[in-house]
Amino acid sequence: MDLKKEVFILCFIVLIFFLPSTVLADLTGYAAIGTINQSDNTNAHNASVTLHSTALGEGGESFRCNCSDPGAQFTSGSGIYATSVDDLVADYDCPSFLSQGAACAAYINASVDYVWITVDGSTVIPTPQGNGSTSYGTTWDSYPRSGLIYQQIDAVLSPLPTPPRVNSTNQTGAQEVDVFNLGEKVYATGSGFVNNSNVTICVVNNNDSWTDGMEIPQNVSCNDSVAVRGDGTFGPVFLWNGSIVGGYDIVVDQDRDGYYNYTRDGIDSATGGGFYIYPEPLTAVMVIAGLSILYGFTRVRRKS
Ligand SMILES: [Ca+2]
Ligand SMILES: [Ca+2]
Ligand SMILES: [Ca+2]
Residue 303's CB: how many other CB atoms inside 10 A? Predict the structure, then answer.
């Protein structure tokens, strides 16, 4: 066998071994589509879906680089999303083959790389939902494929957790009370909090436009350490001596971060005052009587 022939055979063997892997590892032009459902099995409209994939690279790198679509896709009215694999970029620097933000499609091998989705349900119309995802560790080729589309990468959203509850009460906690006389002590009870935790409870001026992540004012009265029992309840716990007339809210800061968090923290009440402090009827009568006497006295002095 002459040298020319040997070189030719060697080149042919190299091509046979490396060409198929190069072709297989390329998901350029492919797309993933699926349906997102709510926990009651109805379609989730406007859920925010992020497609993720590992990229082992063509050279058989020893670790899985993580890639994702930086611009999440929103589901249609029938719960369907679609993401082009070309939109996937590296989440971080993967030495030797991908730098952070670089396109991943050419480095994804459908038979060994994992694909998964994460879904943010907080944008679902008309009612926010919990989050959802598919499991990590499923390869692209485990999903049905039609031409350049991998289909049915579906997910189900979890139900939105019920926010914990807090109520203004009398001293025994047996009765929910929303109206107190000036100087009357205000107590509270709560349920649905983290078992055996400590929470911060603040009385704040009434606010009816609480938003998730809003700072909790510390302008009336706060109790920094209220113990939650093993069943998630607390109280009745003394909150405030009711010394100023007005409308107030009670905020239970479950994670004690100083911010109101819709799913973790409790509020009485997001719509209207959690409780009100009114002047005592007798005090009010005395104030009115006093003002009348003063008015009469002033008139008499003017006349004389
Ligand atoms: Ca909080
Ligand atoms: Ca309020
Ligand atoms: Ca109340």
Answer: 6
CA 274–ligand 2 middle distance (angstroms)? 6
Nearest C-alpha neighbor of 193 from the set 122, 121, 271, 263: 263
Distance from the alpha carbon of residue 75 to the mean position of ligand 1, in angstroms: 30
**What's the 25 CA to ligand 2 centre distance in angstroms?**
57
Closest listed ligand to the CA of 258: 1
pLDDT of the residue at 61: 59
CATH architecture of 165-282: Sandwich (2.60)
CA distances from 109 to 85, 106, 132, 271 (A): 12, 8, 25, 53
Query: What are the sequence ranges of the domains in the chain?
Result: 3-156, 165-282
How much distance in Å is there from the Cα of 162 to the middle of ligand 1? 15
User: Ligand 1 is a single-atom ion; what residues have CB below 5 A from it?
Assistant: 253, 255, 257, 259, 261, 265
Closest ligand, as measured to the CA of 206: 2
- Give the pLDDT confidence of 45-94 residue by residue, as tens digits: 999 999 999 998 655 556 789 999 999 899 999 999 999 999 999 999 98
Q: If you average pLDDT over residues 118-123, what whole number do you get?
A: 95
Chain mean pLDDT for the chain: 87
Question: Which phi-psi region, left, alpha or beta, contains residue 246 (left: φ > 0; alpha: ψ -120 to 50)?
Answer: left
